[in-house]
Write a structure and sequence with these properties.
It holds the Pfam family CdhC. With about 425 residues, the chain is an alpha/beta fold. It has twelve helices and 18 strands. The structure holds iron/sulfur cluster (SF4). The site of iron/sulfur cluster has 12 residues, from β15.
Length: about 425
């Protein structure tokens, strides 16, 4: 975004709209002060990056686009035509330039257009179809920009008073910024998905049992349990832990909320800013409800959420329901052997940050993270057959003693994009 919007409110709203869609936004010129004025948090981890006040600082983001072509597109230095073809086709970037435009901004905009990035402006100037789109009101810029680049975004609109976006996933809430904390290492906490009969569930019922955030002292620690009850014709108990593993990501996507851990070892911090914006416990329920219904629509017909902070009730839920349930799941796996199954599963969930990483998950061999069991991988595959966990056959043994199979090696080669040739499941000494 180049220049200042007509008002600071409009500028900040545009920036936040992109941030909520998971789009990286870089800022040049007056828009930076507008964001500061409107308390928009900025930084690389929040995907809103101020580059500088002078229009020439736009070169930093051009550099990112060019490097994308060199690194990921294998474009050779000096191949200008190949570079421009790559950025046009593969780098879904665009420019929003606010009026008044001067010659330097126009020159920078022409450079963007040459790379295939359309420029949208609110200035009343001439149009170059698909390249320079004038007279776009600030409120329409988001939709017009996505349209110009044919970007389709699946958004889950959730009724909460703060933003919900993957940009907030790595956000750290420091003790001094924290309104309250729920800490499973000190008090009883747990998170649980429980399959029920359809008649036992009232869809979208969010219940808070116990004191809410405004009844806690600033900086205090408390117990929490949230139980997500689901029902559906194709729902299976095996899917419960798969949903639970996603809670970490869902809750972290809330602006000003930090979540770590899983099962009964969780910690959640809620920031003062988020509390002051009106965030309360029912909103945790809203986030869990919306995401479970959205992501697992194929198997979840009805969903209700209970958020419990009554300490005695949380202790009861943790020890009498959650822990026995976790133990039952673990015991089921503990009695299974690799020989007892016909197939293993691959998992590439970590390729988001480690592009050639692949795990082969077997009953006796969890994924590297320790959080994906053979049952979890199986359920993930059933829920999303083209997703991160794929069936790996084990029909062509090379050496069963060290767990080497031709078909497992083939899978490892395929999913690591050739970075790994083979794997022995039981030995790091011999192979
Ligand atoms: S099983 Fe492997 S790839 Fe999958 S989430 Fe765990 S560490 Fe990552």
């Amino acid at each position: 975004i180049l220049g200042a919007a007509p008002t600071a409110e409009e500028g900040a709203a545009l920036v936040k709209s992109y941030q909520e869609q998971g789009i990286l936004v870089t800022l040049v010129g007056g828009i930076i002060d507008q964001c500061i004025e409107q308390n928009v948090k900025m930084g690389a981890s929040l995907r809103v990056i101020p580059l500088g006040y002078d229009v020439t600082s736009v070169i930093h983001v051009v550099s990112v686009a060019v490097r994308a072509a060199l690194i990921f597109g294998n474009v050779k230095p000096g191949d200008a035509a190949g570079l421009m073809a790559y950025t046009k086709e593969r780098v879904p970037a665009f420019v929003n330039a606010f009026s008044p435009l001067n010659e330097v901004i126009v020159a920078a905009g022409a450079g963007a257009i040459a790379l295939g990035f359309p420029v949208l402006t609110n200035e009343d100037t001439f149009e170059v179809p698909g390249a320079l789109i004038p007279k776009v009101a600030p409120a329409d810029m988001n939709a017009a920009s996505l349209d110009a680049r044919n970007i389709k975004i699946k958004i889950t609109k959730i009724d909460i008073p703060v933003s919900f976006a993957s940009a907030y996933e790595g956000e750290i809430i420091r003790r001094g910024d924290m309104q309250v904390e729920f800490d499973g290492s000190r008090v009883d906490c747990c998170e649980l998905v429980h399959m029920k009969e359809p008649g036992e569930i009232e869809d979208h019922k969010i219940e808070v049992i116990g004191p809410d955030l405004d009844e806690f002292e600033v900086g205090s620690k408390h117990s929490i349990a949230y139980v997500v009850e689901v029902a559906g014709k194709s729902m299976q108990e095996d899917f419960e832990p798969v949903f639970e593993r996603k809670f970490h990501s869902y809750i972290n996507c809330i602006e000003g909320v930090m979540h770590t851990g899983q099962r009964d070892m969780i910690r959640i911090r809620i920031s003062k800013d988020t509390f002051n914006a009106g965030f309360r416990l029912k909103h945790i329920g809203e986030v869990l409800y919306a995401n479970v219904k959205n992501e697992f629509a194929a198997v979840v017909d009805k969903c209700q959420v209970k958020v419990i902070t009554d300490p005695e009730l949380v202790t009861k839920i943790r020890h009498e329901i959650a822990v026995p349930m976790f133990n039952k799941r673990d015991e089921r796996l503990a009695t299974m052997t690799d020989e007892a199954v016909d197939v293993y599963y691959s998992c590439i969930m970590c390729q988001a940050f480690s592009p050639s990483h692949v795990c082969i998950v077997t009953p006796e061999r969890l994924g590297l993270c320790g959080a994906v069991s053979w049952f979890d991988a199986k359920a993930t595959n059933e829920l999303d057959p083209t997703g991160p966990c794929q069936v790996v056959t084990k029909e062509k043994p090379i050496d069963e003693r060290i767990g080497e199979y031709e078909d497992v090696n083939e899978a490892v080669r395929k999913f690591s994009h050739g970075a790994l040739d083979d794997v022995s499941l039981y030995s790091i000494m011999e192979k």
